[in-house]
Each structure stands twice: as C-alpha cells, then as structure tokens.
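tool=predict chain=A
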Amino acid sequence: MATPTTENAVREPALLGQIVVVIGGSSGIGLETARRARAEGAELVLAGLDRGRLDHAAAELGASRTAAFDATDPAALERFFAGLPVPVDHVMVTGPGPYYAPLADLDRARAHRDFDDHPWLAIEVARLSVGRVRAGGTLLFMAGTSGRSKPAPGMSLLSANSAAMPALIASLAFEVAPIRVNLIAAGFVDTPLSASLLGTDLDARRAELAAKLPIGRVVGPADIAALAVHIMINTALDGATYDIDGGEQLVQS
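tool=predict ok
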C-alpha cells in the first residue's frame, strides 16, 4: 500500500472549534464569509437586520445562534456583545452600504449617520470586543477603495471615510492588542448591495469591469470571503488594510 504524501493527505479544517461572528452575515459578503468559515470547521454566530434572511442563512449553514438587530444602534450592539459566548475567536463586520452625493445635495444628518455606520461602528466593536475576543483572534472590517483611489464629484464623504478607515484600523490594533484588527478595502463587488445601488446600470458596470480589469472578470463575494478567512487564519496579519479590486486601481483613467 502506498504511503500517503503531504499532497494527498486530508487537511484539518483551519478554523475547527473556533467561533466566528459575522455581523451582516445574512447576505452578500458576510454570508459568503460565513459559508467559507463554516467549511473550515467554524461555529457560526450570525447577526443582521432582516430576521427572515438571517433564519434562512442560519438554517443553510448550521449557525449555532443568530441575532437580528441594527449594529449602528449602540445599545443593541452592546447587548449583542454581552450575550456572546466567551471567548469568541473572530468578528467580521460588513456594515451598511456607502452614502455619496454631490456637495450641494449632501444631507448633513445622513452624512453623520454614515460616519456612525463606518468609523464609529469599528470603534464600538473594538471597545466591546476587549475581554470577549481571545488573544490572537481577529476583528475584521470592510471599506472601499473607490473613494480613496478615484476622487470625483459626489465622493467627498466616501473619500474621507475610505482614507480614515486604514488609519483607524492601525490605531485600533494597538488599542486592543493582542486582539488583531484588520481591514478589507474592496472595489466593486457583485453583490445584492451593488445591484441595489446601481439598479439598471448594473449590467453595464459588470461588462465594463470584465473588459478592463487585469483579472478579466468582476470580483465576487467568494473572493472577499477567501481573503477574510485567510486573515482569520494567518496570525501574523495585524493592523493592515488589504485592497481587493481585481486590479481596478491599476487601470484607473
């Protein structure tokens, strides 16, 4: 009988026995990350706004628990973290979509909410994770590259958030060490959120990117999920921002 080699030996799941919390885990990038983490043996805790979608995702993936709440509500977020099993290994927050508008049309109240929905949410999650996420575990957040790499009319708030998040994440990594804190900055990702933002322009945007991106296709949720789980697994990654846009920044006109 042939002796098994390293190449054909069965690999143990990399997240076996670990608890992965995905806030925004009922659809899109969050759901795909939860799916990949589960395939690596993780126990899942899923949170999101929509109870119906959350229950469907939990049933599909075998999540151990779920919570339907608004993560931008500080009291609700605090209750959620207080109810988590301790210790948790990894927390990923996908967050709500971006807000952008020309300066003349910028809604001040909505702009303030957008800041709360992104940088301030990261601060709150980091604060609440101390004592609940194990040493060496991960806090993982999402941002975009477009506002940072391609300034344009209507992108002022998005550009500010895109530039602020990497600096914030680097500082939070020191604040909550030895918990690791990292950021995924994505370009266009073909998700239901992108569909809702682009509407009838979605197909044209897909075709444009497929034609010009060096990878020859659009980026999908599975691409982001693969990076997210890698960051969870690789314990040397901390305080960094990882751009993933299929090379879009290389071909900006």
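The domain at 19-191+221-243 is CATH 3.40.50.720 (Rossmann fold). The radius of gyration is 19 Å.
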